[in-house]
Design brief:
The complex is a heterodimer of chains A (294) and B (234).
Chain A: H1 6-37, H2 44-60, H3 65-88, H4 97-118, E1 134-136, E2 141-143, H5 144-166, H6 168-178, H7 180-185, H8 190-216, H9 222-237, H10 242-262, H11 267-281
Antiparallel strand pairs in A: 1-2
Helix pairs in contact in A: 1-5, 1-6, 1-8, 1-9, 1-10, 2-3, 2-4, 2-8, 2-9, 3-8, 5-6, 6-8, 9-10, 9-11, 10-11
Chain B: E1 2-11, E2 14-24, E3 29-34, H1 40-48, E4 53-60, E5 63-64, H2 70-75, E6 78-81, H3 93-102, H4 110-120, H5 122-125, H6 137-149, E7 155-159, H7 167-182, E8 186-190, H8 194-200, E9 203-208, E10 211-217, H9 218-223, H10 225-232
The chains are: A mainly alpha (294), B alpha/beta (234).
């Protein structure tokens, strides 16, 4: 335990928050899709991976990183719209396993397509110049880019919250998540809302992938491992709960980074240990509604 | 206004509605009565597009409803308050009302609607920012009716509005239905509280085992003890 100072622990806490911010963006999308559409989206990791690769393409045609932050979610979100409209929509009302299997297969196809186009080797992804280096956060220097990731996630959260709580569309989404039938009875086309939700969910995944790319590069498999972790976050937070996704995302990020400080080899295991403990105490997760799956 | 011809409906393999014929004219309160399981709720749900498979014809102001999805039927001016009220959990009274207003064809200012609601349902106006699900059953029923009314439907279908509500409130509610009719809203009412319902209704249909077995004016039925005994006693 030599060399572990309080400052180091606090810096590691920030590392955990940066990692957690990526989890939050992914889990928010998954939770939206599950809470509203009861779609367990196994392609969520693939949309995340696509976010990084579309970023590489857009950078290649001359856009800068800041424009990518806007256009990558738009491009991938549009692909998400197409997937909902033509692949997933016909499966609504057929039980939870149909869209699950479909998105599982879809993710394999997406990963394979990326392998064909970009090669099986990962690609490097440079941190934008302005965000290179480290910043003094009072207790020591911390990578600027990681601070930026935390900031972007916080901003997205605020925007999403305003959208859900303050707009008519958000009202329909909140009501539709609880009781889609009464929303239809009141004259609203829920199907169109679901389409938009799918676009938002996949767009958020893409944004997470783009933000993660400078930290770890882009590889066709980058979505696979993080998908399992994002599922843990969604389950721990309570499936369908957005607040739960945020809190569990940050918590899982911090647990992983703290474990890697003290017991690096246990970092991966710690995620699932956390999930097991939470599920033993609260089977529906922090903010989940009991019996959602029944 | 609403014309139902040979309406049949199935839930899975069960043949629930076996050829319903009925009609609701503009400006009427029509009461649909019958024992539990007679098919009253299924009739309303089928008109709204919420039941399983259906055949026959449902005409609403010359529009054939059966091929239309539920939200389009609302758009034509058809309101529906289901038996379970379906107040959305986690939304305030105000948000529940807003939800009713969102799809309204003639856009109205929210503040106008709220002040209108306050006049008819003072209890709701006092609780606008309360989580709607925490209100009493009667208040929730008022909210469900108000939510269906804010889009100013031409015809509103009410399923068992008096169920589980204090008698004082029930009288108040039925007085409101009569007032709504006088203001031009047509009402199709399913109700267990037969005497009370017939008291405000113009006409009535009696259902039994998925069929309309009797129809008459409300006043005639109110006086006909034998029919009431045969089809309405529990």
């Amino acid at each position: 335990m030599d060399g572990i100072t309080p400052d180091l622990i606090i810096l590691q806490l920030f590392t955990g928050l940066a990692l957690g911010a990526i989890y939050v963006l992914l889990a928010l999308g998954m939770s939206l899709l599950f809470g509203m559409l009861t779609v367990v989206n196994f392609a969520h990791g693939a949309f995340y991976m696509l976010g990084a690769y579309i970023g590489i393409v857009l950078l290649g045609i001359g856009l800068n990183f800041w424009m990518c932050l806007l256009f990558v979610p738009l491009v991938v979100g549009s692909l998400g719209l197409l997937a909902e409209r033509f692949l997933i929509r016909p499966l609504y009302g057929r039980g939870i396993d149909y869209p699950l299997l479909l998105t599982f297969g879809l993710s394999y196809m997406m990963v394979e397509c990326v392998r064909i186009v970009f090669g099986t080797q990962g690609l490097p992804f440079d941190t934008p110049e302005l965000l290179q280096g480290a910043s003094d956060i009072g207790i020591g220097y911390f990578p600027t880019y990681r601070l930026f990731v935390i900031g972007v996630a916080a901003m997205v959260l605020v925007l999403l919250w305003l959208f859900l709580e303050r707009t008519p569309y958000g009202l329909i989404i909140r009501a539709g998540a609880r009781d889609p039938q009464i929303v239809r009875i009141l004259g609203i086309d829920v199907g169109r809302v679901w389409l938009v939700v799918f676009g938002i969910g996949t767009g958020l995944a893409a944004l997470a992938g783009l933000l993660a790319a400078p930290l770890q590069g882009a590889s066709p498999e980058m979505g696979n491992s993080i998908l399992a972790e994002a599922f843990v976050v969604t389950v721990v937070g309570g499936m369908g709960s957005l607040v739960g996704a945020v809190i569990a995302g940050l918590l899982v990020g911090v647990v992983v980074s703290m474990t890697s400080l003290f017991q690096p080899e246990m970092a991966q295991v710690s995620i699932f240990a956390l999930m097991a403990v939470v599920l033993l105490i609260r089977p529906q997760g922090f903010f989940g509604r009991a019996g959602l799956m029944s | 206004m609403l014309k139902i011809e040979n309406l049949q409906a199935w839930y899975g393999p069960s043949h629930i509605l076996q050829g319903i014929e009925m009609q609701v004219n503009k400006g009427e309160i029509v009461c649909l009565i019958g024992r539990n399981g007679a098919g009253k709720t299924t009739t309303l749900r089928t008109v709204m597009g919420l039941a399983g498979r259906a055949s026959g014809r449902v005409l609403f102001e010359d529009n054939d409803l059966l091929p239309l999805p539920t939200h389009r039927r609302n758009g034509l001016g058809l309101g529906y308050v289901p038996e379970e009220r379906r107040i959305v959990q986690g939304l305030t009274v105000r948000d529940n009302l807003r939800l009713g207003l969102l799809a309204a064809t003639h856009k109205r200012r929210e503040s106008d609607v709220i002040s209108e609601i306050a006049e008819i349902f003072p209890r709701l106006a006092e609780r606008l920012d309360q989580d709607a699900i925490t209100m009493s059953g009667g208040e929730q029923q008022m909210l469900a009716i108000a939510r269906a009314m804010v889009s100013q439907p031409k015809l509103i279908m009410l399923d068992e509005p008096s169920e589980g509500i204090m008698p004082v409130l029930v009288d108040e509610m039925f007085a409101l239905f009569a007032k709504l009719r006088d203001q031009g809203t047509t009402i199709l009412l399913v109700e267990q509280n037969v005497e009370l319902a017939l008291g405000i209704a113009d006409r009535a249909y009696i259902m039994d085992q998925g069929l309309i077995v009797h129809s008459s004016s409300a006043s005639a039925l109110l006086a006909d003890e034998e029919i009431k005994e045969r089809y309405c006693s529990v």
